[in-house]
Design goal:
The structure is a single chain. This protein is mostly helical. It has one domain. The chain is about 80% helix and about 0% strand. The protein has eleven helices and no strands.
Amino acid sequence: MGIMIVSSLPQVITAIGGLGTAAYGLLDAIKPVFPVINHTGFARIRKTVSGLTPDEPGARQPMNALPQKNVLESLLANWVNGTDLASQKAIAKSLIKLHLSAGNAPALAATTNVDAALLTEVAASIVSGAALTAQQSDAYARFDLIVTAMLDETYQHADQVYRNWTRTLAALIAVALAFVGGWSLVGSWLDFWWKPDMFIAMLVGLLATPLAPVAKDISSALSAAVNTMQLVKK
């Protein structure tokens, strides 16, 4: 009897995992209707990059650089379209360095904790095409390293926020689907509400999204275990 119950577990797990996959699919389908889902996590990136692309005094835009608004729009487009995270960070760093100018260098130096005078000289040398001195090269390298570290921390946290929220939304969708499915099987609201079937449906919904990526592996492992026990008992 015990083996018979266990033997049905692979099918149950596969079905629950299928519900989780369906929930993720439905979440992807509603993203165009609710674009805020794709924007999740970008607020942190916006804050960091805004601090790294300051305007010049007098609210002037640095010459030969994208305005901060366009920088953020470009980064948002990459975020929404799911561009590789490493590529997004590389693009962000390139746009930040392109935005550097002698006018905004002091503000940028304060944000990145590098020498303001040296960073201003670096920006002026880049514009004029002059070769950087050893001190300027060292300051620019430090600036590059700090910007890289700030972007890495920001994008990693933003990605984690996005993943956590999408998992949560997918779990809610899975619970709703399981709830409706359980109710439809019972047929009566009074016989379903606050009854064991309702709690089973909610449990199935909660397990669906965590099981979705590994349901096939767990099902195969359980099937192998059941077959092994059947052979041993013969």
